[in-house]
Amino acid sequence: MRVDLFDFDLPTERIALRPARPRDAAKLLVVEGDAPFADRIVRDLPAVLRKGDVLVFNDTRVIPAQLEGRRGDARIGATLHKRIDLRRWQAFVRNAKRLREGDRVEFPADVTAIAEERLPDGSFILTFEGEEPVEVLLERAGRMPLPPYIAGKRETDEADRSDYQTMFADKDGAVAAPTAALHFTPDLIAALDAAGVGRETLTLHVGAGTFLPVKADDTEDHAMHAEWGRIDTATAERLNAARGAGGRVISVGTTSLRLLESATGKDGVIRPFEGDTSIFITPGYRFRAIDGLMTNFHLPKSTLFMLVSALMGLDKMQAVYAHAIANDYRFYSYGDGSLLIP
What we know:
The chain is an alpha/beta fold and about 350 residues long. It is built from nine helices and 17 strands. It folds into two domains: about 5-60 and about 160-340, QueA-like; about 65-140, QueA-like (Thrombin, subunit H).
C-alpha cells in the first residue's frame, strides 16, 4: 500500500511533553465496532471491559540508552537499539561520519566503547569496555531515551526516569517504553481485579527502530528492525484458556500485540515464544491472537498507525484521529489512549 495513505495533519500543540497526572486520569477514546465513539478516561476501564477479559502487558524495563560522548575532537551521540550479547549493543549513531571501525568513544563517568563494526543500515555495533555489567555503566553515563518528538522540544530530566517507565517494568532491555501501559496505576489494577478483568505479562524489548520514519513510498519496501521477545508456556496456556472460555484478549500496547501475533499460528493458538520478531502489520493482515488493543495515538505515516489501521480499517482510523484532534486528545508517548475493539 502507498505510505501516503496513512498521512494526516497533526497540530504540534497536540503532542504531549509530560504525562497526565495521575496517570489513569488520561483521556481514553473507546472505539468498539460500529458504536459511536465514546470519550472516557483510563480510570473508566473496569466499567468498559467485561468480566473474563484479559489485558496483556509488556514487562520490559527502559534502560538509560542515550549516550553522549567524544571520539577525539568529534562529538558522538549513540542510542542503543538492540543487545547483541553481554557487552555488545547495536546502536544508532549521530555524527557517524566521524566514527570508524576500531575507534574508541569516551562517554561520561569513565565509560568507553569500541566501534566494532558498521552495519549496512549505518548503525554500529558498540563493545563496552571493562568488567562492570553494561546496565551499570548505562545507569552511570546514560539518559532516558525519550522519543525525538519530545526530546526535540525539551531536555530530558530526572522526572523522566520514572515517568517513562511503566508500573510493570521488570526486565531490563528496552530503549523505548511500551507507552500504553504508562496509564496504569495500582489503584486502577485493583479496580480491574475487582471487576474480574484478568492480566498477563510478556516481554518484548522495544528497540529505537520503533521511532524510525517509513522512508519507502510503498509499505512492501519497508524493513522492520528485529526486537527480542518472550512468552512462556504457562502464559500462553492461560491466554488460550481465557479465549476458550469466551474472554477477550486485549493487548495493552502495540508491542504486546506484535509479540502475541508472532507467537500465534493460523489455528489461533498462542504458543510459547522466545527470539526475535520483525513482524510488520499492515491492512490486509488477519489477526490471530488478539480481540482488542489499548494504545496511544501515533505518528502520521508510522508503522504503528498502519497497525491500528489494519485492526480497525484505514477509513475508521482516519475518523478516530480526526475526532481525537478535534476533541483535544494528547498524542504520542506521553499522550492519551484509545481502546480499539473491532
